Amino acid sequence: MSPSTSIVEEKFAAYIKAFNTHDIGLFGQYYAPEFQFHMSAFPPTKDRASTLALFEGGLAFFRETIHPTWLLFGEHSVAMEAQMHSEALVDVDFPFPFTGKTYRKGEKFVYPI
């Protein structure tokens, strides 16, 4: 492992820890201003601000934590497969985009990312 790969691993571990606190300001600092977020359930975001707005909306309904199941680090990159552990904070009467299901407050579920 090269020193730069080690730095990428350290920073990514810090990002996961920050994301799992649900503090948007804390984990948002890891996104470049031009950061774009692509997931199948949502239109792509155009920048850091729109990405954080997307997360802010979602985190009003769910408490979510990322649990990596596979990671590959490069000198300037990370590839990840993970499970998102979620808990509904309120009754969610619309189909959740990643599962197609509705959830009651307190209900917990896991989905792959």
What's the end-to-end separation, in Å? Answer: 26 Å
Question: How would you characterize the largest beta sheet?
Answer: 3 strands, antiparallel
Low-confidence stretches: none
Assign an overall shape.
Answer: globular
Helix content: 25-40%
Query: Largest sheet, order of strands side by side?
Result: 1-2-3
- Please tally the helical runs, counting DSSP H or I stretches of 4 or more residues: 3
Relative strand content: 15-25%
- Secondary structure class reads alpha+beta
**Element string (H = helix, E = strand):** HHHEEE
How would you state the average pLDDT, rounded? 92
Task: Report the strand count.
Answer: 3
- Computed CA radius of gyration, to the nearest angstrom: 15 Å
Present the secondary structure layout.
Elements lengths: L2 H17 L4 H5 L19 H12 L2 E12 L4 E11 L19 E5 L1
Antiparallel strand pairs: 1-2, 2-3
Provide structural commentary:
By secondary structure, the protein is of the alpha+beta class. The protein is 30% helix and 25% strand. The protein has three helices and three strands, in the order H-H-H-E-E-E. It has helices at residues 3-19, 24-28, 48-59, and strands spanning 62-73, 78-88, 108-112. A three-stranded antiparallel beta sheet has the order 1-2-3. The chain is globular.
